[in-house]
Inverse folding.
């Protein structure tokens, strides 16, 4: 039985029109497409949303739009993070958190804090925030790895409920799973390794690719949680090409190309990102056309 923030969450993209303004009808399509195909929750304003390129007014408008379209049908998690702790606290204070279940906050990037610095950063956020905090470790983007010992140390704090773990070090993931408190969520931030994490006792995934294939991805994670690994791996193998394509030229260029092939949104991204190459777009379209319609 799945519980709070277990199963498949999807890290929503921010669709853009050709002039790079926010495409709100496409955002509505994306939300409806995923809710209708049984995703368990939505993750808003993560890296995949290109939040670094959105202005404060745009962020506010996108959050309000997603809240309105979702209308409390599935839980929502809001990304608020950064490498200035006081600024993170200020953003939390200035953001309307109504209808959100938790805050996803990434390990500080660029200034490369020590493990003690990471601990104190999250401790302060947890003490200040009115919502539960979901840690987010993604060393490939931040340049700093939050070690298992630090995660486990943070897991004892009252307002920290789990981690989105996107390290490629499966040993680190297993160390967290081995010694975590019973109610501490361990969620994969890596689509390729999500089923392995679930098979080892993890709680699910916050997926990029899942928003392009929500029915298939939700089923494979749900089957994995229930112990039906044979069917889960068969479903994963069918989606392996899509996972590779989604990250071949960077995120979210790949997933936006997948969504464009499904006529959900356009493939445009904002600089410094560029949209997927024609070659990759063609490969993605051919893959999508071979799959059964869901």
């Amino acid at each position: 039985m799945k519980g709070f923030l277990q199963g498949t969450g999807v890290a929503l993209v921010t669709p853009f029109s050709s002039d790079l303004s926010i495409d709100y009808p496409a955002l509505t399509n994306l939300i409806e497409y995923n809710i209708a195909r049984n995703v368990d929750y939505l993750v808003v304003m993560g890296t995949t949303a290109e939040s670094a390129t959105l202005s404060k007014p745009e962020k506010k408008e996108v959050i309000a739009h997603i809240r309105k379209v979702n209308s409390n049908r599935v839980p929502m998690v809001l990304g608020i993070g950064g490498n200035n702790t006081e600024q993170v606290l200020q953003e939390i204070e200035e953001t309307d958190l109504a209808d959100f279940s938790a805050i996803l906050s990434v390990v500080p990037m660029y200034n490369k804090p020590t493990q003690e610095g990471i601990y104190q950063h999250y401790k302060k956020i947890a003490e200040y925030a009115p919502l539960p905090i979901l840690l987010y470790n993604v060393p490939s983007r931040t340049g700093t790895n939050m070690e298992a010992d630090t995660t486990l140390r943070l897991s004892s704090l009252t307002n920290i409920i789990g981690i989105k773990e996107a390290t490629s070090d499966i040993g680190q993931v297993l160390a967290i799973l081995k010694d975590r408190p019973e109610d501490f969520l361990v969620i994969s931030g890596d689509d390729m390794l999500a089923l392995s994490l679930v098979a080892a006792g993890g709680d699910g995934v916050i997926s990029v690719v899942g928003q392009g294939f929500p029915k298939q991805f939700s089923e494979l994670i749900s089957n994995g949680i229930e112990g039906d690994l044979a069917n889960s791996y068969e479903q994963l193998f069918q989606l392996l090409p899509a996972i590779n394509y989604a990250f071949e030229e960077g995120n979210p260029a790949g997933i936006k190309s997948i969504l464009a092939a499904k006529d959900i949104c356009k493939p445009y991204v904002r600089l410094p990102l560029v949209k997927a190459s024609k070659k990759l777009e063609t490969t993605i379209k051919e893959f999508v056309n071979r799959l059964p319609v869901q």
The first helix runs from residue 24 to 36. The chain has one domain: 7-220. Strands lie at 7-11, 41-44, 76-79, 102-106, 133-137, 160-165, 185-188, 204-207.
